[in-house]
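for the writeup, i need someone to sanity check this before i put it in the appendix. the sequnce is what the collaborator sent (i think, or maybe the updated version? ugh). structure was predicted straight from it, no edits. if anything looks off just tell me and ill rerun, i have time this weekend
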Amino acid sequence: MADPRLAVDHVSKRFGATQALADVSFALTGGEIHALVGENGAGKSTLIKILGGAHQPDTGTLRLDGAPRRLADPRAALAAGIVVIPQELRLVPALSVAENIMLGHLPTRRLSVDRRAMTAQARRTLDTLGVRVALDQRVDRLSFAERQLVAIGRALSQRARVLILDEPTAALEAREVGALFEVLRGLKTSGVAIVYVSHRLAEVVEIADRCTVLRDGRIVYAGTRGAFDTDSLIQHMTGRALETVRGGAGSAAAALFERADGFAVHEGEIVGLAGLLGSGTSRFLRQLFGAEPSRETVRMRGQKIRLGSPRDGTAVGIGLVPGDRALGLVLGRSVRDNIALPNLGALARAWRVDDRAIDRVVVELMTALDIRPRDPGRPVRELSGGNQQKVVFAKWLAAKVGVLLLDEPTQGVDIAAKAALHRLIRDFARRGGGVALTTADFDELLSLSDRVVALRDGAIVAQLGQRDALSEAALRRVLGG
């Protein structure tokens, strides 16, 4: 094997009582795609932050091109050609697509930004990804999947020698994943060293030249292409074989939620929302919650309701897990506070908050969802992305809502936690709740849904049930993709 471009030797890192990494050695060579996998809390995020200069190891050495190197901060890592694309997209919402892509290296002319050159360079970058979005559009007007592609485009424009991608395909559909893989293969051919972090193990098997598995802060497996498959990776990650549960929640009963345009969610039903990139599935969910304006007449359990704000949605028993988990959390507050905040009314007694009731509910949900570390007082911002997602999910389970709206519910969640969340979704429906969800993973959509509503430009174009031989091929025929 060629000399590593970037390596860590016997690195350990502790945060208080938590041993995040223990004697980890990891090497990355130019012209390879090296996958890094593990359950949430396994240490992946910590290792990425050390590679990107955001954390310093307690012990061990980092080497760049064979020479010991201290990356004091992310700026030093970027200067060394190391670009990290984190799960939490670091984009400036009020700036345009082109400005975000070129931010940090804007072309100038006569002491001002050369906007023509900026637009041309941004367009060339997005063309390599096969992405067509308006370059002058503000980023906060894009869907989550489109923002993800803009973040990837910005990294590509920085001419990275080492590119670290953390869950880059979480909100992408198959077409966009294929385009991204072509870009990564091109970068690999040009000598870029790539770290690919994903919970989509089929993608890892397809794209990775090497794969390293972390469990509880330690490396438990390292292998080359052909030596690993999805089943073996699951066993290395979890220490056991994983049972997969498939199939919808069951038959539907009385309507819980209805709109005049024909959209409905029934008791015990899981409804999937399907659409190609830009079809408006996320916006449709936000309308159902009251977070986006809609002129549709809405009924909840037969009673006409008004959905003018998220407060209205919460008041009638609707909960939303957003695609961008930061929108569903107060990052500076504890796990306990985040789970309790939407539920203070139900967890109060005689106008006083019942702390014992809160503690009991929080402990039950942290155990059921396997939120790690099992510390209710830990600030949410200190949790891994997948565990943050579980906290967003937990707060609505604590609220005992009747309808759950899920936008990419398992994004950034490891394979074992994904199966657990699927069981929780099905259990919620079996107890009489209704679910509407959207996901870029067609297999997940089909395995969970009793019925799928196809959207184009925010409008319903078809509804397919199990009787319609519900399949990816049938959906793509309806969607035109």
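The mean pLDDT is 87. The first helix runs from residue 44 to 51.
thx in advance!!
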